[in-house]
Known about the structure:
acyltransferase activity, transferring groups other than amino-acyl groups, alpha+beta, seven-stranded mixed β-sheet, Aminopeptidase, about 200 residues
Amino acid sequence: MYVRDAKNRDEVWLLDRIEESGLEDPAFRSRDYVIALDEESGAKAGFGRVRVHQTDEAEFCELAFVLTLDAWRGQGVGAHVVERLVAEAGDAGFDRVYTFTVEPDYFLTFGFEPVDGDALPETLRERLDAVRAERGDDAIAMQLRPDAFEMPEAYRDRFKRATPADEPDPGEVAIEETAEDFGIDPEKTTYKYDTSR
Length: 197
């Protein structure tokens, strides 16, 4: 598994996954996203993006989306997307990365800390209000200094061995289905299409 910057050719895939998940990204640009992929198959496992809020006084970096596809959940994919986005924000010179979430425990594992909404700059207070309108009043603001990011070792281990849920884990014996499993006698059954030629 690895995480890379999204490319223009990923745009349709990203837009389809965003729509399927019920998320909205009115300022969509594929180049703002990163994608987690399986090295062997090239299968896309998850994605995320940062959003920069510009004001006359300053710019603020928000970890706006992190989504792992269902078949890849629980395997460290989202954690590595977060890591990549936080690193890119730090490389871009941001001293804080903000996120607005209804699942603060997940972000606490990386070192994010809750922030009182009233203490946020006006632009981020407005963003928190928008997130609460979308996801509910339980949404809170959190922040992290990029150099304080922590990756739990368990997430690294899972990410190295990640496989989609519908595939057997390496070393697991796959059971091959046969015609008999479906009540078909292959000796007596005729087929509409002859595939033996």
